[in-house]
Amino acid sequence: MDAALDLLNLPLFTILGEHVTVLEIFGFVTGALCVWAVSRQWIWNWPVGLVNNLAFLLLFFGAGLYADASLQAVFFVLGVYGWIVWARRRRGGGGADALLAPIQRAGRRDVVIALVATALGTVAVAWLLATETDSAVPWPDAFVLSASLVATWLQARKVLEHWWIWIAVDLVSVPLYIVKHLYLTAILYTGFLALCVYGLVGWRRDWRRQQAVAGRSADPAAIPA
């Protein structure tokens, strides 16, 4: 185990005087693949994401980002849940569109739960980090943890609005990782931000197409005799 960890923490090159390790590069690649796959609604985003969770758990723990490290463990569980949900929904219909689980829209209840959970989670986790750990950035670390959990929960249910939460998470994460000298990870999250915008636009387009197909199916006049 120690030999494996030594290999993962082997520095390959430097960015702004900081070593970039094998582990950080592995997290970079799997993270980018995962977000791109989500934007394309490909179900294999979940297993790739599970591998990415394990990589970032080790990376963040080593950097003293304890909330982010703990978050990866929870992400792993939510990733298994999301994989199951998407797999069940894609088996539930017929025709070509059955390959994709349908995109949902957030209702008022979803919005309230998301906002309250993010706010309460941020306060609670920030207090815990400030009082029980040596974290130098408890508030942004806590927000990233809480908002990411909410975003993953909505993503597992394939709710379109989860992209907005990921965008907020990325906007906070980039300066956070720069402060912690995780420059490659900061670059990765900048890429995540662009992919999230791409995913939001794509999911909106697909949702409108999905609604149009549903409307034609529900209209007897649109169904050939």
Structural commentary:
Belongs to the nicotinamide ribonucleoside (NR) uptake permease (TC 4.B.1) family. Its main location: membrane. One of its GO terms (cellular component) is plasma membrane. One of its GO terms (molecular function) is nicotinamide riboside transmembrane transporter activity. The protein is built from 8 helices and 2 strands; from the N terminus they run αββααααααα. It has one domain (2-92, 107-216). Strand 1 and strand 2 form a beta hairpin. Helices cover 74% and strands 4% of the residues. The chain starts with a helix and ends in a 7-residue tail after the last helix. The chain is mostly helical. The longest helix is centred in the last third of the chain and has 36 residues, at 183-218. A two-stranded antiparallel ribbon has the order 1-2.
Q: Span from first to last CA?
A: 66 Å
User: Into how many domains do the coordinates divide?
Assistant: 1
- The best one-word shape is globular
The level of helicity is over 70%
Largest sheet entry:
2 strands, antiparallel
Strand ordering within the main sheet: 1-2
Radius of gyration: 19 Å
Count of individual beta strands:
2
Q: Which class of secondary structure composition applies to the elements?
A: mainly alpha
Q: Approximately what portion of the residues adopt beta-strand conformation?
A: under 5%
Number of helices: 8
- Calculate the mean pLDDT score and round it: 82
* Poorly predicted segments: 93-98, 220-225
Order of helices and strands: HEEHHHHHHH
Keywords: Cell membrane, Membrane, Transmembrane, Transmembrane helix, Transport
Protein name: Nicotinamide mononucleotide transporter
Transmembrane segments: 20-38, 50-67, 73-89, 110-130, 186-203
Pfam families: NMN_transporter
